[in-house]
Amino acid sequence: MAAVLPSLALALLCLLRAGAEVPVQPGFDAEKFAGTWRVAAAASNCSVFLKMKDEMKSTITTISFTPEGDLAMKLIWPQQDRCQKFELLFQRSGQAGHYVAAQEKRDLRVMETDYGRYAILHQLHQGEQEPTTALQLLVREWDVSPQLLQEFKELIPTMGLTEDMLAVLPESDQCTEAVS
């Protein structure tokens, strides 16, 4: 299990990224976006994610904003015998809904959201190897409609990813008590 933890952490980090040509939610409202989300589906070309995707469960993501407008993300990742926690901070860029973590060379964009039901995040990581891209479908409640999932699947090839890079993450209540 100890060898799996670093791999899961790396897989999670591979999911966090976005690119310059990617659109951002028009009129993005940080106050409406803040709160708890669950990752219902994700697609990425990150090699660690691709190795781990069939074993992953839905991650609980809590998003808040600092007084400066930076995005703080707390993630709780269910594992076999525990809940792994991660905290990330993205600085706001010049555009609402676009955030960067310069030290990690990460770019995060809220592509689309209705604030109450779903959001689609695009992330790009300019690592030491080739850049990796990821899309995430976040939901507030665990009621992912087939239509929403289909629309997410249709978005995957437009971001340079393929459907075999997709993981539809099963619901898990394993870490709900860890949400603070």
CATH homologous superfamily grouping: Calycin beta-barrel core domain
Give me the CATH architecture, please: Beta Barrel
Q: Which range best describes the helical content: under 10%, 10-25%, 25-40%, 40-55%, 55-70% or over 70%?
A: 10-25%
**What is the arithmetic mean of pLDDT?**
85
CATH class, please? Mainly Beta
Order of helices and strands: HHEHEEEEEEEHE
Strand numbers in spatial order across the main sheet: 1-2-3-4-5-6-7-8
Counting H and I runs of at least 4 residues, what is the number of helices? Answer: 4
Textual characterization of the structure:
The chain has a single domain, classed as Beta Barrel (Lipocalin). Helix content is about 15%, strand content about 35%. It contains four helices and nine strands, in the order ααβαβββββββαβ. An eight-stranded antiparallel beta barrel has the order 1-2-3-4-5-6-7-8. A hairpin with a 5-residue loop joins β2 and β3. The longest helix has 11 residues. The radius of gyration is 15 Å and the shape is globular. The two termini are about 25 Å apart.
